[in-house]
């Protein structure tokens, strides 16, 4: 039986970080490299957080967002559909994801940590290697999510699943440039929106992130964004 709570050890290291970025609106003053960054030793979620895990979090913590607009809007009467049990949880904001992580003594991955976890010490462009290979991730172009353990051939060198396609992932940092508050999304998503103002879909390489503006909580919840957690450990 698959343990969807399993964590994977990532040995701390340093590497030259460089990332390509997509900006939907405005500018981005973030230093995209190349620059030397340090990654601490981590225990990171092997899989993105599933609907079943998030449901248990709600039962254990009693968490209720102050602004409930669009919160878990794919659920019915406070629970996921059984066929969605092991799919990545969506329609959760950055703050919702932080609340989940904090309850379990974790946090989200920082942008540079996510890139390292996805590409490994090999610095692969995709979790499995340097070339895109169809069939290693959910890149269907449709609004259909697959279970987080559906693509074993898409694992990263550290053994993390579902880091390409299926659903974007929130990262830890939140920035404020005086005009916009934003964070970065990683991994891409299966759904390719027909309009430019949506987050760009499709499976994305490890050295790519999307600047995502944080607005009100209802608008920060999307049907194409999930998350995974990590915590620092001695390595």
UniProtKB/TrEMBL annotation:
<dbReference type="GO" id="GO:0120147">
    <property type="term" value="F:formylglycine-generating oxidase activity"/>
</dbReference>
<dbReference type="Pfam" id="PF03781">
    <property type="entry name" value="FGE-sulfatase"/>
</dbReference>
<dbReference type="InterPro" id="IPR051043">
    <property type="entry name" value="Sulfatase_Mod_Factor_Kinase"/>
</dbReference>
<feature type="domain" description="Sulfatase-modifying factor enzyme-like">
    <location>
        <begin position="34"/>
        <end position="186"/>
    </location>
</feature>
<dbReference type="InterPro" id="IPR016187">
    <property type="entry name" value="CTDL_fold"/>
</dbReference>
<dbReference type="InterPro" id="IPR042095">
    <property type="entry name" value="SUMF_sf"/>
</dbReference>
<protein>
    <submittedName>
        <fullName>Formylglycine-generating enzyme family protein</fullName>
    </submittedName>
</protein>
<dbReference type="InterPro" id="IPR005532">
    <property type="entry name" value="SUMF_dom"/>
</dbReference>
